[in-house]
Amino acid sequence: MKNIFFTLASGVALILTSCGGEDEVGKTYDYDRSDSLSVDYTRQTLTIRGNIKETSGFYLLLKSRGGEYNKSLVNSASNASKYSSSFDKSVNMGIYGADLNYLTVFEQTEDARKTVEAISKLSSSLGIESAFDKESFEKIVSTADTLNLIEKSNLISKAFRNAEDQMYSEERALMGTFMISGGWIESVYLTSKIILDHEINPVDLSDFWVLVYNYESVLKMLNVFGDDADAKKIYEDYKTLEPIVKKITEKSKLNLEDIKALNDEIGKIRSSLI
Hints:
Elements: H1 2-17, H2 21-25, H3 39-53, H4 55-64, H5 86-105, H6 109-126, H7 134-141, H8 149-169, H9 173-197, H10 206-213, H11 215-224, H12 229-239, H13 242-249, H14 256-273
Helix pairs in contact: 1-3, 1-10, 3-9, 3-11, 4-9, 5-6, 5-8, 5-9, 6-7, 7-8, 8-9, 9-11, 9-14, 11-12, 13-14
């Protein structure tokens, strides 16, 4: 586990270091043209994708240490009908994607099916329904399928990668960024709640450290779209997390007190998004 931790952490650190400093981070890009986005922006995206994908394995670890399913933690699928703006739809598609990963690992087939329906509704209204493979989602929620939990989680990751790629290819990278932002905050919210609710010893939970460390990448991605009102608002909201995020990432060992402080602050932002 330690080897995996240092490999991932070093990779994230390298990518963040390669972003060219404050001048590059503050640069404004024409987000109506996907090919105008910097190479560093793409690298941030790939970093977050990779680590969010690893969250399924982290859920399995937490499950093995006493973590249990809590229906109240996920965003209700019924909320999908109330989202009207492309911002709300995109962010909550990311949130639902993270929820689907959680539901799949904890084998909640019926709730997973409802979440898939919510994702389908939002993707259709955003005009990206073709990016989601219906056959793959059927496999994810099927009780008869022979796929194991990790294989199902991989299908979820693949589906959302396809959606994000279509957003970039169709010059809608801003929506893709909102989706990733929603997925990040929900992943941190869910994993931290499991740790806290079941008083799981966090000392060697390096996967959580890596997930929190992605905060900087999320900020950098959002800052690319600083002239968009929604991107600016969510960036400013996420920026308030910086003090507690640093308390976690700058320490060599995790503790429940810091995790609770982060969960409390993330919970406030999440409530405003769902």
